[in-house]
Amino acid sequence: MTTEAVEHPARRYDPHRRDRIIDACLDVIADVGVAGVSHRRVAEAADVPLGSMTYHFSGMSELLHEAFNRFANAFSDRFAVRMAAAADRDAAVAAITEAVEGDILSDQRELVLTQELYTLAARDASYRDITNAWMGRSRAALERHFDPATARMLDALIEGLTLHRALDTESQGGHVVTTAIARLVTTDSDTDTDTDTAGETP
After folding, report:
1. Residue 58 banded pLDDT, cuts 50, 70, 90
2. Where's DNA bound on this chain (predicted)?
3. Rounded distance, CA 155 to CA 49, Å?
4. By CB neighbour count within 10 A (0-12 exposed, 13-18 middle, 19+ buried), where does 109 fall?
5. Cβ–Cβ under 8 Å, residues 124 and 42
6. Which pLDDT score is estimated for 79?
7. Which domains does the chain have, with CATH numbers?
C-alpha cells in the first residue's frame, strides 16, 4: 500500500501582522466608534484571519489599549517635535498657535479618535493611564519654555481651543487663538515679575 504525502499549505510569513491589526483597529474606531469595534471587523480591515485576533491579543481591552496608546504617542510626539524646534519663548508661542490652527486634530479621523478615547477613559478608569500619559507628555513639551503651572494651563487652553476650532460651525479666526495664548502668557509674565519684586523695598 502506497502512502501518499499530504501537502499542507505553507504558513504565510507576516511579521507585521500585529502592527497591522493595531492600525486597522484605529481605522475601525474612526469609522464606527469604540462601540462598533469587533474582532471580525478589525480582522477584515487588517486582512488577517479571525484567529489572529486572539493569537496576538488576550481580548478587546488589550487591543484597544494598544491602539489608543499608539495614537496618543504619535500625537504627542508630533507636538513635542514642534515645541523642541522653538528657539525661545516667543517662538514657542508661535509654535503653539500654529499647532492649534494647523496640525492638532487636523482631520476628522484624529478628531473622532481623540473624542472616542476621552469618552472611553471617562467611562472606564482602566484607560486613564493613556490620557494621563498623553497630558504628561504635552506638559513636558511645554515646560521646555514655560514654568509647570503655565504649562498646565496652556495644555488645557490648547485642548479647548482645538476642540472649538474642530467643532464650531462658525470659524473662530486665527486671532482668537493668538489672543488667548498671548493673554495667558502675558499674565504669567506679570505674575513672575510681581513675585520677583515682592520682597524689594520701594
Report:
1. very high
2. 38-57
3. 42
4. middle
5. no
6. 94
7. 14-57 (1.10.10.60), 73-194 (1.10.357.10)
C-beta of residue 100 within 8 angstroms of C-beta of residue 164: no
How far from 195 is each of 100, 182, 186, 187, 189, CA to CA, in Å? 30, 20, 14, 12, 10
Residues 136-186 have pLDDT tens digits of: 999 999 999 999 999 999 999 999 888 887 887 776 666 888 888 888 988
What's the grid cell of residue 194?
510681581
Sequence-distant (6+) residues with CB within 8 A of 54 are 39
Q: Would you give the end-to-end CA distance of the chain in angstroms?
A: 112
- Mean pLDDT value of segment 65-88: 95
Half-sphere exposure of 105 (CA within 13 A, CB side): 17
The mean pLDDT value for 196-200 works out to 47
